[in-house]
Amino acid sequence: MYVTLRDRPGADARTGTVVRRVSSTVVLLGVVSLLTDVSSEMVASVLPLYLTAAVGLSPLAYGFLDGIYQGVSAFVRIAGGYAGDRGGQPKWVAVLGYGASALSRLAMLPATGFAAITAVVTGDRLGKGLRTAPRDALIAEASDPGALGRSFGVHRALDTAGAALGPLVAFALLASVPGSYDSIFVVSFGFALLGLAVLVLFVPNLRPATGAARIGLRRALRAIAGRPLRRPLLAAGMLGLLTVGDGFLYLSLTERDDLAAGWFPLLYVGTNVAYLALAVPLGRLADRVGRARVLVAGHGALLACYLLAALPTGGFGLTLSVLLLLGTFYAATDGVLPALVSRLVPDEARGSGIAAAQTVVALARFASSLLFGLLWSLQGPGASLLLFAGLLVAAVPAAGFLVRGVGHE
């Protein structure tokens, strides 16, 4: 991965020169996300097994909690994006969100019942919702418009490096002391605190270059509801509704292939390694051929993932294929969506626009988790995955039609 650091976008994008540089701010934010994702993925990689095996939740109850994990952040994403836009302080809004998530790691220690765990997970996800849009607005502001896919790809690659390391740390802790979930929560807090320190001490608080950092609520809402965003948001919501949570996919693989519980965290590593390898190449591809095209095409990898995970028998090769396809899906969508949206709204409403897209996706995935948990309880994982795959076959071309021609610069 070739990256040359710089501080702010230069004249290359205006003159049409091919840009091969990524802002130092993007890299620093990537380091923050790397450390934070080591923390969060340490917990996330054991949470499905912890909740179903140790706590004893049913698939439907886990579906509710996974829905909280996927979707509760939607309630504050637009507030976080707007707060960063309105006050011209996106960095400090992000600091508040990262801090809330860090504290939730320690709060997991005394949480043993369903209600307590739900409250802790909710606090963590609210922190994520608050920080994500202001952080992505900082990335967009620090980047050349013609290289947004690349910049978001570099950030997501660093983010995903942490997401790959987190489950390895959790695996090592569980291997050393089986069932030592408390040690996972304590170590994850340490990583989260280190990431917060990097953000506070080293990341600049960039504002829109136009100087229009303060935007009224009415104007922000007009930007979100404006015509340029309608079709992309509709497409993103439709596809998000058919995106099964990672935890469900991993639990289905564990059930089918009879994997030992201690190996469960390593399933996250396979996905994140693929994401890490492909985030920058697919980001650059999105800059060249169109971000909307890559966003929709990435769901083809998700479709293949469902079909392979739904097979009645598996094995190492099929399991690895599912993990790699899931990582490919995230590499083609996670950073590409904010890169696409950030160019469809005015600069001063960038955080609000990105937050609107993320809110739609989060709410859709919340509904998806509840629905899939119910279907699993009624008919098992295989039939449920096949049903989602069939619906996705129809949704992908429909989404492609909705975003046709969107985001071409």
Question: What is the fold's blueprint, element by element?
Answer:
Blueprint: E1 4-6, H1 12-15, E2 21-23, H2 24-44, H3 47-54, H4 59-71, H5 74-87, H6 90-107, H7 114-141, H8 148-176, H9 181-202, H10 217-225, H11 227-240, H12 246-257, H13 264-289, H14 291-309, H15 316-333, H16 336-341, H17 350-402
Parallel strand pairs: 1-2
Helix pairs in contact: 2-6, 2-8, 2-9, 4-7, 4-17, 5-6, 5-7, 5-17, 6-7, 6-9, 7-17, 8-9, 8-13, 11-17, 13-14, 13-15, 14-15, 14-17
Keywords:
Growth Hormone, Chain: A; mainly alpha; 2 strands; 17 helices; two-stranded parallel ribbon; 409 residues
Beta content: under 5%
Tell me the radius of gyration: 20 Å
Kindly state the percentage of residues in helix. Answer: over 70%
| The CATH top-level class label | Mainly Alpha
Shape: globular
CATH architecture: Up-down Bundle
- Mean pLDDT across residues: 85
Helix-strand string: EHEHHHHHHHHHHHHHHHH
Low-pLDDT ranges: 1-19
What count of domains describes the coordinates?
A: 1
Largest sheet: 2 strands, parallel
CATH fold node name: Growth Hormone, Chain: A
Record field, number of beta strands: 2
End-to-end Cα distance, whole Å, is 25 Å
Separate helix tally: 17
Structural class: mainly alpha
